[in-house]
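Data deposition worksheet. Section B asks for the primary sequence of the deposited chain exactly as it was used as input, without tags or linkers unless they were present during the calculation. Section C holds the resulting structure in token form. Section D is free text for depositor observations; keep each observation to a single sentence. Incomplete worksheets are returned to the depositor.
Section A, Depositor: J.P.
Section B:
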Amino acid sequence: MSMVHFKLETDTDGIALVIWDSPGRSMNVIDLKVMEELSAIVEKVAGDAAIKGAVITSGKDTFCAGADLTMIEMLSREFTDVMREQGEEMGVHRLYDESRRLSQLYRRLETSGKPWVAAINGLTLGGGFELCLACHHRVAADNPKARVGLPEIKIGLFPGAGGTQRIARMMMPGDALQFLLKGDQVRLPQAKTMKIVDAVVPAGELIAAAKKWIKDGGKPVNPWDIDGFRLPGGLVYSKAGMMTFPPANAIYRRETYDNYPAARAIMQVVYEGLQLPIDLALRVESRWFARILRTPEAAAMIRSLFVSMQELNKGARRPPGIPPAKFKKIGIIGAGFMGASIGYVTALAGIEVVLIDRDQEAADKGKQHSHKLMTEQVNRGRATSADREALMSRITATADYGALADCDLVIEAVFEDRRVKAETIKKAQDVIGDKAIFASNTSTLPITSLAGEFKEPARFIGIHFFSPVERMMLVEIILGKETGDVALATAMDFVRTIRKTPIVVNDSRGFFANRCVLNYIQEGHLMFMEGVPAPMIENVARMAGMPVGPLSLNDEVALDLGWKILKATEADLGPQAINAEQKWLLEELVEKRGRLGRKNGKGFYDYPQGSPKRLWPGLSELQTKTLDPDTIDIQELKHRLLIVQSLEAARCVEEGVITDVREADVGSILGFGFAPFTGGTLSYIDMMGTKRFVDLCKKLEKKYGPRFQPPKLLVDMAQKGDTFYGRFAPAPAQAA
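Section C:
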């Protein structure tokens, strides 16, 4: 057959070199055509007596990024079609047979009778790394940027092409479970220590080293296929096994609250598989993989955390026809924590930064923040001293606004006060060029009103970063009423240049993310005022799937910021726009007790130096009533915390703040950690079903008030049986 993705060359020693280089792609990924071609190559190597063995490598800078998950989506759609036409049993059989093809291909390679060596020349993940694990030897090119791993758990799946069974036979079961459940990408030295990579050699010697292993008599059999093979951790039902699996189950429950079917499946297939011969174990893995593919959690996570995120990162919302922006210099006004962090990620992307504050001392302090962050990277071995010096040389700290004159983009990140921002905008617009784009990093203030202070509102846009900037992957781009397409394209190009994920939202107070997350925090406050014990609020939030409880999150973003936002909202919209109980609580904590959150070491929690944070014992003084924990409906608390956020997301769609459902879901997970297993705020509604969701809202509205009132859009969708991804499917989905 003619090859599109692979080239096959055989040298005079009879060693085949298989070069994987898919055309038109920046990285190799596994799809049906790749599987078909690789299968033909395996048969060619196995059946040709002149071929002594094979080395597989990549013609790109990376080896393989894993499977093309649109193939997985196609399998799920095919299952639905077959089930509808031929019944569920036939649909399940079809899904099982199709989903295990890659596993069977790798097993055929592994038992082909010829030695295979994976020559890993860069990033190798997922199904690509499972291919390497099926090979009989793994050699990697020394590259500090290279990583290997099985990250499927992060998108609601687990390694289904033999990864769980081979990893569990290569290391102690506790280590295997940790590797599979975390989904981390590990560096080559660590991979070699873990014995999932056999050798690391200079890049120029990679292929020679791989071939040498075959010439030196490398065996075409993996350890688990040899009679007498012993598991690294011993039998499951042994003293060592009982010291692993029961504690691992407890840790799994603690970390996931059983919200992630794929994580449960990993526990199950490792436990069952280690009690079976490898071929039966692979069949167990395949059965569980097919089962997980049918779960709504996997479908939602794949859609949001892979397909949608990939589309947004590629600029799905970028206006067409506008040339890509090139950034030589970025101006940042405000060298406080946020501004300094924006400066850091900008300089990290190789762009020159002008960092401005009220005086030289404040500006220098902001620049020093980048030095601190880079030093942490150096100490962890993720950067060198030379990298740090190069980054610092790209940052100019000054109090002179004149330094903004030749900046392509200027971002103000000053105090969240309308008057302060207006003064800053006026100073900047007097010196910046007539083509420079001006952006405000405001958390809640409407962009249209701020743009009124700028000489040309078409060049004014909101770019809202989340704290801590260096770790948070989401950036909200906010359009004012007069923001132009060039400003939007420039903002998107900048966000993608600094390797963040952009979502585009229309103007409103709090925009999208803060509207949702402030409701989450407020719900925690109101639960507290109802008498729900603070530990229960925090623990139930994590049980619902949130990364941290609402009280802890409030401490992280600062109680005084929440207090300022509440006061600003009341000043602009009147007392009916805020909750009186929440106002009392924040005023008591911030104004009367000086508890500002983590930043001053005291908020809802205390933060003793050198010790873990703990809930402040004085909280009980602020509760005028307390409820008996045994009388509280845990499921209702979980629903309140998730529904109050999803309701706000639905309102944002109704009001036109969100115009693309992908952005609501991706933004909610990346921006404020909305329970990832749901796929995001709108997917949560779709997964539950709009009718059931609206019924729950009405029940909560009757008990807790109008904040749970479903908007007209949701009521209409419930009556018609609509879903968000049905009614508001993005263009690519409609075309498909």
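Section D:
The domain at 329-508 is CATH 3.40.50.720 (Rossmann fold).
Residues 532 and 628 are 8 Å apart (CA to CA).
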